[in-house]
Amino acid sequence: MLEILIVGAVSSAIYAMLAVGFTLIFGVARILNLAHGSFYALGAYGAYFFTAHMKLPLLPAALLAVAVVAVFGIVVERVLIRPMRKSQLAMLMITLAVALVIEQVLFLTFGSEYRNVPAFIDTKFTIGGVDVGGARLLALGVGVVLIAALWLFIQRTRLGSAILAISQDPVAAQYMGIPSDRIFAVVMGISAALAAAAGVLAGPFLTVQPTMWLLPIVKAFAIVVVGGLGSIPGSILAALMLGYAETIVAYMISSSWTEIVSVLATLLMLMFRPAGIFGRRAAF
User: What is the pTM of this model?
Assistant: First the structure.
């Protein structure tokens, strides 16, 4: 039971970082970003590139990888998404195209082989008789800190108030002088940075290869559907539910069955409560 609690908490933290960024950009800019999983992959590959090829220490390499992906997310929003914002279908297609292009670039640059992202902590810790990798515990701790910091940023800062205003009523916010385009770019950068951080933290104990973007976007989509599109509290709760559900299924049945959990959760939620647990009104 203790092992399930620890492993489930680690999975939930990774899922929460992915899902909070995904639901943030949807809640503010109404962008269903199918390239979100690619930011996760770029974070992992960025940490690998800066440590293995540029010979940087791990911490500067990780911070640089997150910063580069955040800037890349802003560029994608400004150059590709912004001209298409009036059409939801066009935004879906362009973000999917970005994800596929990134996958091919990673494949051509690094090949199809698995890459090893170095861990900040290589040692294992024993908690109540359960051996847990230091990288997993670090992912859990940093994930909680980042999500808490994002919540405080949105609730306590002037820029966070502007993000809240845009998410609640974009037209009224623009009449009050809030530059919506600038806010959309900032939110896209934050969303990309969270996904990249998840990739950097999960890279040491998960598979790093060009197609790694697909599973995270499926998980993120399932979480925001269950939690409620645009609801950060809903995404956090749904991430906890999905993380522990997958862990329990892996321990009681088989790890090969875990991937069906997110798909089944999405299907059941769309059938019985399409708005999700919290629904749109509970956003932020």
Answer: 0.89
